[in-house]
Amino acid sequence: MKDMQKLFPSIDGNEYHREELISYIKNILTEIDELKDPSKLTLGEMPEYTEDYYNRITQQAKVPEMGLSMEETVQKLLGLVKGHRYVNSNYVANAAPLPNIASILGNLIMVLVNGNSLWDVEGPAAATAEVEITSMLSKLIGYDPNVSAGYTTWGGQGAVFQSLRLAIARHEPQSNQKGVPNNVYCFCSELSHYSLYKSVEATGIGINNMIRVKVKEDHSMDLEDLKEKMEQVIADGGIPLYVLATMGTTDTFGIDDIKGIKGITEELEQKNDLLPIYIHADSAMGGMYTFFNDYDFETNPMQFSGKVCDVLTNYQQKFRNISIADSMVFDFHKLGQTPYITSLFLIKNKEYLKYVDLDASETPYVGNRGYGSYHTSYTLECSRMGSAMAIYASLLAFGAEGYQQLLANYIHVNIAFREALIKEVPNVAITNEISPITTFRFYPEAPKWNDEQNGYVQLEEMTEINQFNDKFAEVIGIERDIIFFGNTKKQCLIKPVNASQRIPVYAHKFFAISPYTTIEEIDRYVAFLKEHMAFYLKTREQILV
Ligand SMILES: *Cc1c(COP(=O)(O)O)cnc(C)c1O
């Protein structure tokens, strides 16, 4: 076994073993650093993804008969990293984080002691960190930390799933035994994330019982439509169970009016003698902006510009109401710049958990012992990674002010990008509100966004404009290793003048996510789009001729 022991860290803390591990880590950091190039998105060249790329890998793969040396193993791993996208200033596509140093170290510590957040006996560090961040963030958003509960889970999607599970169990405590009733309904904005779609599918509620509510021009839920649709469900004998309030839609950063939603659910509960309707704030994208809930914009101690303050003041009014929600989520691995997966699911009232908690007799391996007092038998996972460590580390190292600075910069950069784009490119329209994301749409000739929004444009023309944007996404996508813009095929739905159905609108996305995406970079982004558009218009003309 001596040979095998060499593959593990020491148990006595000897220096020789430590230096060996450090040397591997140093080698990895050095080689990755050598691949970095601030003017490119990728670490070295992208592999050539031929048709049979994965097929060939499938054919060649085999467990080696004899283990490789650690040096060879590291080289194999670094081989996989070649061509990897690296979130520097050239990445403006989606909410992909560049993990900050504190979070990397938090993660490393978690791996070194390999705690299991399932039970504090097996993972005391992460369990305590989890309790601590639950309290810290409860205080930030206005939940009572003595009443709230929270745990890290599998992403914003996991939070949606688990909130729906709580809603079902609270509404129908017998459902654990008897299954889900077939007359309950969920409501969400038509621009909400597909998390709820998957969750109604997996819980057995069924997609037919998920009602999509229209959005307004600001991409937030149209509350009149919500009310009408809830009343219709009730009139047809259904029971409204759950509303998903999206706080920051994935593509356009629309923020639902959670106070307005609560007003409607309470009114309907009273009028129809219903049990409380559960509201989950899907704040996977926007939740970090609760860091401004207590910011004083009058004195503006961080000296944000007037325009940035205007946007943030507006957010403050909306995000202060998040405490109305029965649960919400912090997806640190989006705007919080930590590694995957670091999501905290926060529940307003820990009482809800009793409906889904397992009886001690169902968990014979752990928990029902005299030792240990933190046992998460209510989570859908059994073993859980201690990702609370990475979140905790980031909160300590950034502080509220650090996050405020980071989050304000996303807005600052977007304002500048919008102004420069409109100034430099004549055939573009900006199609969402100011936020960390700018969506924009190009036109073969002059922009027609207002006409499109008002429903004056023909189906054929809107389809052509969609295709114009789709092809342009292909054109700039070829050079995504220089600058990588995002795009969406459903920024929203709009009705053409001559059609009865609304159709999805294609748009491009600029997502200021990296801390290296600063004001100084704006001209470069806009020049890239301008040059490629000129080229695209020219080649298109030639093809049309
Ligand atoms: C990203 C996102 C999700 C899913 O979050 P994951 O962490 O990727 O699981 C859910 N809802 C919204 C609004 C999102 O933007």
From TrEMBL:
What species is given as this protein's source?
Ornithinibacillus caprae
Q: Keyword check for Lyase, yes or no.
A: yes
Which SUPFAM superfamilies does the entry mention? PLP-dependent transferases (SSF53383)
Q: Name one GO molecular function term.
A: transaminase activity
Q: Which residues carry this modification: N6-(pyridoxal phosphate)lysine?
A: K334
Q: Which domain of life is it from?
A: Bacteria
Q: What is this protein called?
A: Aspartate aminotransferase family protein
The cofactor(s) it depends on are:
pyridoxal 5'-phosphate
